[in-house]
Fold each of these.
Amino acid sequence: MIQGPAVDGLVNLRELEARAEAILDPVAFAYYSSGAGDEDTLRDNEAAFGRRRLRPRVLVDVDAVDTSTTILGVPVGLPVAVAPTAQHGLAVPEGEAASHRGATAAGTLFCLSTLASRPLEEVAAAAEGPRWFQLYTHADRGITEDLVARAVASGFTAIVVTADMPVIGRRDRERRGGYTWPDGMYGNFGKYADERGAHPQFLRSAMTWTDLADLAGRVGLPVIVKGVLTGEDAELAVDHGAAAVWVSNHGGRQLDRVPASIDVLAEVVAAVDGRAEVYLDGGVRRGTDVLTALALGARAVFVGRPVLYGLALGGADGVTAVLQVLREEIEIGMALLGTPTLAELGPAHLR
Ligand code: FNR
Ligand code: LAC
């Protein structure tokens, strides 16, 4: 379903926020766009990429540039996938079902949030492409167990444990905009007696490293730890069974004044030392951002807000369009860097 020409002529991802603000409900826009505190980290996520400089190699045969790779063994057409974000129903009624279809059409993986607007079974049925499930633990352990079992049954192939939300961050613009967590928008919790129990205020990510090891040991799927910002935690994650470590500051929405994701990537890659895959999200808006992260050792990167904005502007097609712009920028960047395959990227491509 094409919902409008709003993404037509999209030149780059930085244009998305203003375009989305013009059409989204102001309260939804405040929720999607805001960061914690003074938003120093939110701004720094993008700015820190802009401080990096590349070292291109010339006179390389770049006739055939290949953007494809694998993420935990999942083949993808580009090294960019969709980060889990809550409440896609604020953008379009179809919510995450449309986003999943858009990601599949772009040739990449979709990660569904626990706090999705639509039930995971419905999202899974909407597209054939690969999908992962992001887990926030519920105060009721039985509900968490059931959620994970449902994800396994619906073809989600990894569990992403988000570790940076023991409490929800304080976001001033969201408050000023009057955002409240809506009733009837917790797609995954509709079948449980107390839907309100899914409200982030009541979600208690009471998980510890011991719980992580327990989950990794019995779920039968790879478990990924999202929200790691130090080498110490990266090591702990691997030691407790994580198949991958996901560098993230939650898009600057949790603890303000933590570093930009790209600025801690090297520390995490060094600590993991090849024992697990490393991903990154936060402020990825350009093909060159993607190539910078891969040169520093990330296997792949994820995008959050650009997907939400693409969804608001054009539904599934809008999501595909956003990812397609990134893919084109990556292709051109690879040709100009002299790296026709992603495997060739390394620290030598950065100053
Ligand atoms: C998020 N993020 C997030 N992460 C998660 O693990 N579960 C979730 O439910 C959500 N919800 C959510 C809502 C909104 C509106 C945003 C913007 C973000 C964080 C997300 O996965 C990712 O870390 C950031 O969005 C990445 O930064 P960028 O790409 O938005 O700059
Ligand atoms: C957020 C939570 C739900 O960032 O992850 O709003």
Amino acid sequence: MSSTNPIVGVFDSGFGGLTVLRALLPRISAAHYIYLGDTARLPYGAKSQQTIARYAVESARFLEARGCDYLVIACNTATALALDDIRASVNIPVLGVIEPGAQSAAEATGLNSEVLVLATTATVQSHAYDTACAARGLRVTEAACPLLVPLVEEGWIDHPVTREVLRIYLSEALQNCSPEAVLLGCTHYPLIAKAIAQTLEDLGSEATVIDSAEATAAAASFALTSPRHPSEAFIPATFECFATDSVEKFQRLGSLFLQQPISQVQLLDLGG
Ligand code: DGL
């Protein structure tokens, strides 16, 4: 890894990982970020391990070939099902979202606490969060919430349908557990974190909502930043984006996730 101005690759199945880029930008300055959203093949959350690993490895290799020094797998599903394959296929350090998310849940709660993980179907079936949380002495219930990704992609952030879907998912999950924390195990969920917290409260739960995007940015920042000398000028981070489908849609929807305009998006063909 170069000693200054690292190039950080951020990979997601689509737009959602921009919530991780959003968390990274203020934390690691003097870095250049290359974001890749595999929008043509989204969603990963309902696909098989073999397919997810093949897609994720192709994307990771692309980012390494673009000169990235460090890779953040912002996609929970790709982390859960393909982190080992990705690490085996590139020669740069790779950070996934699950270990930082589980660590953050452990720090927010404590030994033997109960944690509810909300994620895609593929992530839940992998039990990757369960394994990572159990290793930290937490008790885990995992709930698949497949309707939330399309609702967020539709921009239905503060919408009665999204609130109703949340009420159904969370009331079902709360029949099986009384969590101290609810871990957002999908890139899209931070956008509806307020609605999730409100629904939990309405259902009588006092669980803290934990965002794995923030936890991942903190872990990357720990790995990448060296203390800055007080006389050094602050250099804001720069970023460029690649998408495997409509550039126009990426700019429009992506700015919602990143909470700032996205001017530079290049179309990339990774094949089928
Ligand atoms: N990025 C995925 C995740 O964090 C959600 C979208 C998808 O299913 O591809 O799990």
